[in-house]
Write a structure and sequence with these properties.
133 residues, mainly alpha, rod-shaped
Amino acid sequence: MATQKASPSPSSDLASLSGVSWFSVWRRRLYWLISALSGTLETEREIVELRKETERLRKETEQIRNEKERLRSEKKPIENEIERIRNETEQIKNETEQIKRDNERLAVLESKIDGLFLKYNIGLEIPRKPEKP
């Protein structure tokens, strides 16, 4: 029987044919695997960072939403107070206009009374202010 020479691996036959050692082939494959794993690890790290950033933004959005709601709730009483003041201002304007009309009417009546007193020679004594002791 003839002894057969055992080949270390089938790829070594291919490597010896192309002039590249099996160690170089495996080293390239290992380098590729490490690079792929490094990329995976980097991607996973980025995913973790993105999740943290997403959570931070979610919390910040919630805080902004709460602050906005608080401001809305504070705004309603202020708006009610502004409306109340507007109504009071309008009422004061109306009362002021009424007082002006009444004053004009009273001035006309006073003028007529003064005219009648002169016509009928009615003299009223103007009261004097008491002197201070």
